[in-house]
Amino acid sequence: MKTLTSRTSSRTARAALVALVTLAAGWATACSDSATARPDAGTGQPGGGGAVEAATAFASGQEIAIAVPEKGKVFLSLSPLGIVPAPADPRVSTGWDMAFEQYTITTNGGVSGPGQAASFGPLDAAAFVGDAAPTVPFLVADKAAGAFLDWFAYEGAPSHALFSRFHVVGVKDGERLWKVQLLSYYGERDGAPISALYSLRYAELTDRGEGPTQQVDRLEGTAGGPGGGPNEPSELLDLATGARSQLTPADALASRLWHLSFRRQTVGVNGGLGGPRGVAACDLDEAGLKDETMDVVRARTPESERARFASVTRASFDGRSFRADGVVSGFSDAWVDRAGASPAPAYATWIVVDAEGNKFMIGFSKFVSASTTSPGTIVMHLKPVSR
Question: Taking the CA atoms of the chain, what radius of gyration do you get in angstroms?
């Protein structure tokens, strides 16, 4: 734990670094070729035409321009606000809070760093106007995630509920392939409703057809509940044998005896940063995400989506890309709107906790000179809020 003295000296040193690096970044931006800038590269609101609204919503916050190169990573401090030098090893440094690499945002917590950083969103952009952070069901530290990243749709206040999208996800282990459909995030214990008790169905797909459909209920993803620590065990499932086990995150990372992991709102696979087995997955319905409104998702049920699951065969995944788990923050890909001619920031508010546990609201109003691989210069707005 940091002492008051060490925290103060750390902040003083960080402030000095922020001043130097931000000054250099500002000079580089001022000397750039303005003819290449495209003020319309980001409007601040999906559909283009929200620049005024974004400027109004985020007017009460501090503003910073973050120049993100085509290659490389930019590190940001939230308090004091500014660019900081790239640490020798970000995974052991608390001298940064957020990092930007192309269209990926990471935070100093979870698998990305030793800090307390976490995030949640998107929330309504109007939330930024207030002085207190909206209530959210959880904060997301950086984690290993992949094809199951978008398995749920989040409904805000007052329910703060997670609804399965009922996507069919292919899970590949060597030559073996299963289709998986998540049915529910909620279960009961002692007559009381409990979140993170998963239900799903799955079946193996072969060249000759498919195996029997299996349904698994009450998969224990609570990990100790809201007060649970980072080392609480949660449940894992082996699709080949049906075996269920509970392991801590550290033990799961070393184990080859599972395919899927369930931890609070996160479903992972045993591959990449998720584990050593080499498992990869593919969300067959990912392309439809942009059309899935909350009303559409809320209306789906295990019964209504049974036909979707039944229609998927091994051939459905021909030509599809499978991926292992990589680093994902609470921003995931939801902070970017790609509906227009050029990528633009989603018109939304995000809750972010920095490496020392301080809470902020963040909004992005525009991208300048965005390309297919980089947002160019991000105009970001920040406001500290009470915990």
Answer: 22
Instruction: Give yes or no: residues 199 and 219 share one domain.
Output: yes
Q: Which two tokens stand for residue 140?
A: 């997301």
The residue segments making up the domain with residue 118 are 4-123+335-385
Residue 75 lies in a domain: yes
Same domain, 110 and 245: no
Asked whether the bond before 80 is cis by omega within 30 degrees of 0, the reply is yes
Residues 204-243 have pLDDT tens digits of 999 999 999 999 999 999 998 877 888 899 999 999 999 9
Q: At residue 124, what are phi and psi to the nearest 5 degrees? A: -55, 135
For 310, counting Cβ atoms within 10 Å of its Cβ (0-12 exposed, 13-18 middle, 19+ buried), the class is middle
What is the C-alpha separation between 186 and 193, in angstroms, rounded? 7
pLDDT at residue 26 tops 50: no
Are 285 and 172 contained in the same domain? Answer: yes
Both structure tokens of 292:
């899935």
Nearest to 100 by CA among 116, 124, 84, 120: 84
Distance CA 34, CA 376 (A): 13
State both tokens at 257: 């005896």
pTM of the model: 0.66
| Stretch (H or E) spanning 66 | strand 62-67
| Contact (CB, 8 A) for 376 and 100 | no
